[in-house]
Design a protein that fits this description.
195 residues, mainly alpha, globular
């Protein structure tokens, strides 16, 4: 979700800085996830696996429940922040492209619309919001994160090679992903098999 935002903020012409920011920004949550998994496994009895592990940890003593609650709130908060920043940017770009102009008011309206739609759906009650949330966590998320990025990179590589073949692209190529086309094709194939 946040890759387009990182690229926009750092500038598309700075691939090394973008790559380092994405790797660092991804490494921190991965380390936190590994620590979280280790702590959860150490604190929970594997025999009692029928209940949600987070709910089980939250029902423990305050020394356990308080840090778990803080981590859960932090995870939800960071997900919401990146989602709304990314979606706000996407809606703003789409709106500005469709209208042909983009004022500060247009950006504010686009960002407000980004927050308003999910808020209205949530206000409709759990009978609508929970199934939509479950659906969005399944198929669309897999397509969005596993299929679209390598597919977009394949399209970009193809258009750059066509432009270079016609003599239009004179710049040097840089590799954001080692392995080239075979790795990208494997990533797309894996993403299509996962759902």
């Amino acid at each position: 979700q946040s890759v387009p935002l990182v690229v926009e903020r750092l500038g598309a012409r700075r691939p090394k800085l973008i790559r380092n920011a994405i790797i660092t920004g991804s490494a921190i949550p991965v380390v936190m996830c590994v620590i979280w998994a280790g702590v959860s496994m150490a604190l929970l009895d594997p025999v009692e696996s029928s209940m949600d592990p987070v709910l089980r940890l939250l029902s423990q003593k305050a020394e356990i429940a308080l840090p778990v609650g803080c981590i859960a709130i932090g995870a939800i908060g960071t997900t919401l922040i990146t989602s709304y920043l990314s979606m706000g940017q996407f809606v703003t770009d789409a709106f500005c492209t469709l209208t042909g102009s983009c004022s500060l008011r247009d950006r504010d309206v686009s960002c407000a619309a980004t927050v308003a739609l999910p808020a209205l759906l949530a206000c409709a009650g759990t009978s609508l919001y929970v199934p939509l949330l479950a659906f969005s966590g399944g198929f669309p998320t897999t397509v969005l994160y596993l299929v679209m990025p390598p597919l977009a990179m394949l399209v970009i590589r193809r258009s750059l090679s066509k432009a270079k073949g016609k003599g239009k692209g004179g710049g040097r190529e840089f590799s954001l992903l080692p392995g080239g086309k075979p790795v990208l094709v494997a990533m797309v194939s894996l993403g299509l098999v996962m759902p």
